[in-house]
Input
Amino acid sequence: MFELTDDQRALVEVSRDFAAEFLAPDALEWDRTKHFPVDVLAKAGGLGMGGMYVREDVGGSGLSRLDAALIIEALAAGCPTVASYISIHNMVAWMIDRYGSQEQRERFLPELCEMTVLGSYCLTEPGAGSDAAALTTRAVRDGEEYVLDGVKQFISGAGASGVYIVMARTGDAASGASGITAFLVERDAAGLSFGPNEAKMGWNAQPTRPVILEGVRVPVTHRLGGEGQGFRIAMSGLNGGRINIGASSLGGAQSALDRTLQYMSERTAFGKRLDQFQALQFSVADMVTELEAARLLLWRAADALDRKAPDAVRWCAMAKRLATDTGFAVANQALQLHGGYGYLAEYGIEKLVRDLRVHQILEGTNEIMKMVIARDVIGR
Amino acid sequence: MDIAVLIKQVPDTYGERRLHETDWSLDRAATDAVIDEIDTRGVELALTLTEQHGGEVTAVTMGPDGATDALRKALAMGAAKAVHITDPALAGSDAVATSAVLAAALRQLDVDLIVTGNESTDGRSAAVPAMLAERLGLPAVTSVRALTVDGDTLTAERVVEGGWARIQAPLPAVVSVNEKIAEPRYPNFKGIMSAKKKPVTTLTLADLGVDADRVGAAGSATRAVDGAPRPPRTGGHTITDDGSAGAQAARYLIERKVL
Ligand SMILES: Cc1cc2nc3c(=O)[nH]c(=O)nc-3n(C[C@H](O)[C@H](O)[C@H](O)COP(=O)(O)OP(=O)(O)OC[C@H]3O[C@@H](n4cnc5c(N)ncnc54)[C@H](O)[C@@H]3O)c2cc1C
Output
């Protein structure tokens, strides 16, 4: 469990090379210009990054969650924002693979796996974030179709994505989690539109937009799973999503740390190299230790998910909480150790801090992670 | 057309490479071992040709047990199978001995084309491809930057001093490629995961019928008698721009035959 297999080392090597060639050189520019590199995503899809744990009959790579976490971490060393989008895309692809009909799998997954078509996950609404089961987007059955009305907020990839998994209420207003159903909505559906790309602190290399549904007609054949199963489907997708977002934080933080070590070996103050001050050495020792601890927990959680352990949800929540908090803290400390240069865009460290900050908020805030963990150990 | 690609595991050029001071042989433990970059380009050429003309690619290496990693990389890129020639007696073989062993293995393969790198980044003798062709009685087309195949004829652009020459040769042939030949593809995840399931044949000297005294350090005709570590980098050449820097830089490069 502590040693990677030959295959895993090969997967990491390719992903790291890919990130170094296709992500890292442009990451700062994409951040500055808010460019979503769909062409690079299609290249990633060609390597098998679009359906990492989707079954192979529809073009998936059939890898494990641990494999995927290693790949996402390697990609995040080039750009955590792109790595995290790839994570969301994989969550969408996996949900279709796991809960979709054979017809849905064959229709949607080949292109999603190649990343020639991208996916978005639409759960959050303006009035329902952490309390996602309070969502109010409605889906009303009309013959062989459902009619969807509502607004989804903060949707990653929106506008660029071709496929949207939309969680909507089919039950009555008081039906809670059990009245929610998942739907596959295609970008060209009449009545589907997108709000403006949000101006935001980080994650600029992928769009975040409201998704507006006005009388969107979705055929019954595009319902994902049964009526009332949508919330469970949405939550089960998030387990892998949380591991991958944690892995993305680790990769971004590791890259900040590696660059800091390099910087400290070159920069001098008071006649000494920065890496010769014991106070700063101790800071580096803590960064390395905490990052490794978070990584260990993350691998442990990915393994629990691979084994379908009954307490996998708690492991995923613990790993996400620790990896995203640690990742942000390490990146922030890397900025501190760079002094004023860390604050300049040119050095790329402040971008990592901005990008990793949101990992503590999305895929369930870290407070919600603590709720999940406490619920498991204390009971409701 | 079936193609054999010769690949070699070499010390990573990113690392500091070192020689043993006793016999001036390469200290292979000092750095990570990787597939020689030039050989990934050879694999790429071979894969492109089989995609166009059908057939399979076989990756062939002679090297210690750990060289399977280099073979696995070629298999992950898309080679169908691999041959690993390994025998304790092979350590220290020079180009003459190496070419004898490789020739013995390639005679068993029956391929239409043998692709090699023009020179390895460690030994850099650049002699093995031509020696191999001689031993096999095949045409040798070395330092190739572009290659096409039509029926049983290959047409290659061979880099020569000051330019390039178009060469045609009948198949089978031995071709050595330079770094311009092709950008190696990234192995995709399916390739990586299937690499382990592809057949790798291990051959010893006995399997090849090669006499152990003709190979290895003892059986080699050449021996390193002296050596020295590379001197540290010096300051380099500075050109001050008085308006003619471009011309000066070009002259400097031409004098050193870089341009
Ligand atoms: C850049 C970005 C991209 C996103 N992408 C997507 C996407 O693709 N798809 C999608 O569906 N959503 C997405 N989100 C939405 C994200 O998942 C939500 O923002 C998140 O779940 C929090 O919801 P909220 O913003 O409504 O905050 P709120 O739920 O209003 O929370 C506010 C604060 O209160 C805390 N809090 C709330 N309830 C409790 C409680 N019971 N106990 C303790 N503390 C509590 C929260 O932790 C938080 O600190 C994205 C968000 C961002 C910023």
